[in-house]
């Protein structure tokens, strides 16, 4: 349990009509509460990266960290902030809008990281020929912070480009549905009923 968990909720929510996605009610609780319920037991400590509604997020009882880089710079900026504040050798990251994430996510990412002697392990779904990488579901060594900071300082912002610069392990999960993001108000309504 030497892993810090980071939930990134720092976006503008533009695809959801510029509302704070993590605070949208889904099946009787906010999206981020669903994520916390599944993610918290898998890590030693939990952090939330948020850039708005900080007073509401503080009510969840875990440290709330705004981006060190101003201007809604994306999930890598949130990740950088999480790594800056993490006190463990590893950090796992998940988004605030994925309430179905697996209960064994971190364990399996840790196994992949160790077996691959990698700096970062990331979720993939699908088959060998047509797999999909889910870059915001990942586990990394805290030692990647200097490389990430340099990447951000160069003006880069794309998560997949940064991951491609590292020694990574891809960990296959058979259940695509576990990594569904609720990005729009239609998604919120469509997934409201248990599948």
Task: Report on the architecture of this protein.
By secondary structure, this protein is an alpha/beta fold. Helices cover about 30% and strands about 25% of the residues. It contains seven helices and nine strands. The strands form two sheets. A seven-stranded mixed β-sheet has the order 5-4-1-6-8-7-9, sandwiched between helices. The protein is globular, with a radius of gyration of 16 Å. The model has no long low-confidence stretch (mean pLDDT about 90).
What's the helix and strand layout?
Layout: E1 3-9, E2 25-26, E3 29-30, H1 31-39, E4 45-50, H2 54-58, E5 64-65, H3 75-85, E6 90-95, H4 105-115, E7 120-126, E8 131-141, H5 145-153, H6 159-164, E9 168-172, H7 185-190
Parallel strand pairs: 1-4, 1-6, 4-5, 7-9
Antiparallel strand pairs: 2-3, 6-8, 7-8
Helix pairs in contact: 3-5
Give the DSSP E fraction (strand runs of 2 or more residues). 15-25%
User: How can the largest sheet be summarized?
Assistant: 7 strands, mixed
Order of helices and strands: EEEHEHEHEHEEHHEH
Give me the Rg, rounded.
16 Å
Distance between the termini: 32 Å
Which percent range fits the helix content? 25-40%
Strand order of the largest sheet: 5-4-1-6-8-7-9
Sequence stretches where pLDDT stays below 50 over 5 or more residues: none
Number of alpha- plus pi-helical segments: 7
Give the overall pLDDT as a whole number: 90
Report the structural category.
Answer: alpha/beta
Q: Could you give the count of β-strands?
A: 9
Shape: globular
């Amino acid at each position: 349990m030497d892993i810090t968990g980071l939930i990134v909720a720092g976006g503008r929510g533009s695809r959801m009509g510029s509302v704070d996605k993590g605070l949208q009610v889904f099946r009787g609780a906010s999206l981020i509460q669903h994520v916390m319920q599944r993610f918290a037991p898998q890590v030693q400590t939990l952090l939330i990266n948020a850039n708005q509604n900080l007073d509401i997020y503080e009510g969840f009882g875990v440290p709330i960290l705004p981006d060190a880089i101003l201007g809604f710079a994306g999930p890598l900026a949130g990740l950088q902030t999480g790594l800056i504040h993490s006190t463990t050798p590893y950090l796992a990251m998940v988004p605030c809008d994925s309430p179905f994430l697996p209960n064994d996510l971190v364990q399996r990412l840790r196994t992949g990281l160790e077996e691959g002697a990698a700096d970062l392990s990331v979720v993939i779904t699908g088959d060998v020929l047509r797999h999909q990488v889910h870059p915001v579901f990942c586990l990394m060594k805290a030692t990647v912070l200097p490389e990430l900071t340099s990447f951000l300082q160069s003006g880069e912002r794309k998560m997949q480009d940064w991951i491609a610069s590292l020694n990574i392990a891809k960990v296959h999960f058979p259940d695509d549905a576990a990594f569904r993001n609720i990005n729009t108000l239609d998604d919120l309504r469509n997934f409201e009923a248990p599948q």
